[in-house]
Structure formats: C-alpha cells, structure tokens
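Sequence and fold:
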Amino acid sequence: MASRLTKYLNLTFLIIGVGLLVGLLFKMDTEEVGARLLQVGWYFPPAFFSYVLGLFLTASAWRCIVDPAASRATYRDFLAALWAGHAVNQVTPTASLGEVFKGTILKGKVDGEELVASLITFNFMSTFVVQIFTITGPVVVLFAVDLPSEVIWTLFGAAFIMFIPVGLLALLLRWGVASKVVGLLQRLPLVKFKDPDALLTKARSIDERIRRFRKCRPKKFLGAVFCLFLVRLCQVAELWFILMGLLPDESAGFLLMLALLTQTATQLIAWVMTFVPGQVGVAEGGSALLFQWLGMDPLTGFSMEIMRRIRKLLGISTGLIIGWFVVWRKK
C-alpha cells in the first residue's frame, strides 16, 4: 500500500514538474529560448566535458575510500557503477535507488560489508564537500562582484540551515549509524529478521570500517577529499562555459562568480525538491527566478537550465546504457 502511494506521489510530482516546465516554455517564448540555446554553440562541448570529468573524478574518490584488501574491482568497474547509479538517481526521486544499483554492479567484486561502508562514507564525504561549496560560494561572490547582497545573504542563510543535518550525520557516523539503524528496526513490532545477531554483527563491522578509514588510510582519505573538491570545480566550470555562451558581453571573472552563486542556488533547489524526479520544472523555474532577483533577464537562467537538461539527458542515457550492458554481461 505504501509503495503504491509512493509511486502515485512520484508520478503526481513529475506531472506537476512537466506542466511547470511547459508553462515556463510558453511564457518565455519558445523561439527566443531556442535562439539562446543555439547561442551557446561551441561552449556546450567543454561544458559536457566538465561533467564527464567530474564523473571520472568521483569514481576516483570512491575507489580511494574502498579498502584495496577487500576489493578486486578495477577503476573501470567503479566508473561503470558510479555512472549507472548516478543515472538512476537522476530519474528517480530522493536519489536512493541509484545507490542500490551501484552496490548491485560491484557485488562480488567488493566485500559486502566494505561496499556498504564505502557507499555510506562516500555519500557523507561528498555531501560535506558540497555543503562547504554551497556555504562559501555566496561569501566569495559577495566580496568579488556587485550583485544584490540581500539575494546572496538569503542563499547563504539557506545553505547554512541545510548544513545542520550534515553535522548530525557526522555524529551518527561517529556513534555507529549502521548498528543504530539495525537496533532501531529490531524494536519495531512488525519487523522480523531471520538472524538478528548476525545482522547486528555485520552492522557493527560496517561502522568500524567507516570509523577507521581516515585513521588507517590518511593518504587515501586526503585523495578522496581532493577528488571531490575537483568535482565541485568541474560543476562550476560547466555552468561557467554555458554562461559564457549565453552572456558573451560579460567578463569571464563575473561569469565565474555568477556560476558559483548559481551552483549554490541549484544545489539548494535539488535538496528541497528532491521528491520531484530530476527536479523537472522546478530547476528551470528556480534559476529563472534567481536571475530575476539578481536584476538580470530570467530567460538567461531558464535557458541555462534547459542546456543543463540537455546535458543531463545525454549523461543519463549514457549511464543507463552502461548499466544495462554491465547487468547483461553478468547474466
């Protein structure tokens, strides 16, 4: 019953998002939007390259986290699992099914407990780095360019509030999130496990692997942080290239700061609207509204998101093909 309700809600939000996107297209004038997209022209290939490079770096970060003693997976395995899982996350709400798909692809190549521990650690580290960029972005822009300060401070405040759950998650990881979750589930009257003691032992092993990663392999920890830092720079670079095509008369420095601020705004929208599959409609509407608040043409923000939507479709299609090929080869 709950699963059916969730499906209906997801479909409802997707329909609403598509409706919003279509409404914005007509409001913005489809011909003008098309002209803006063509204006991006040769800036799109480097923007797409930035996205692909970010995926390669993300796979490198994940590989750094996995203990090599518990893995026989190659870098190509990590990249395939990462790209395919990323694609699934993009087309499903809450971005969680993709994590299961990543584990399915690497099953048998990475020890089960190490795989779960690496995914938990990887997602936390990735979220933490994203949060740092999301908070510091508005501060850098505030001192670098002349844009409405009230908008920048609003984004900073929202990013700061979103950082609170990350702090709580850090405490949970320190206390042992896996064993805490299993212990909580065991107390529920309708949840029964075949061997609860064995499951709790595995959960404690996962928690121990998470805790000892930074202490036992500090170089790999720093390598993962460095890669994730570069991933965020790649995401900013993607926006920067697109904006250079949309706003050719603006300086490269101003557009870089605008890309940094836009990245903060789009990330906040993704978090708040995570229940909308792919943030269809809300991402475009949010960016158009941001540019309007900044005293710029909202059509620019909308066109930027449409161009990113095209990039997402190419990336998602590639990821789903990779996932299908890997699963087919396992059969």
In short: The longest helix spans residues 112-144. DSSP finds 13 helices and no strands in the chain.
